[in-house]
Amino acid sequence: MAWADFTAWCEAPGHASLPATPEVAGSFLAGRATTHKPASLTMRLVAVG
């Protein structure tokens, strides 16, 4: 689920999901920070990593 969320997020603006750059991963997490709990953000970070 976390990986699918990231890849779907990457597709909209045309970001490459692999390899995930720190800038793309940071933008993704920043965008989710207002709607997700810290544990969910950690899970997404692990999935992207």
From TrEMBL:
Q: Which UniProt keywords apply?
A: DNA-binding
| Keyword DNA-binding set for record | yes
Record's protein name: Uncharacterized protein
Gene3D superfamilies noted in UniProt = 1.10.150.130
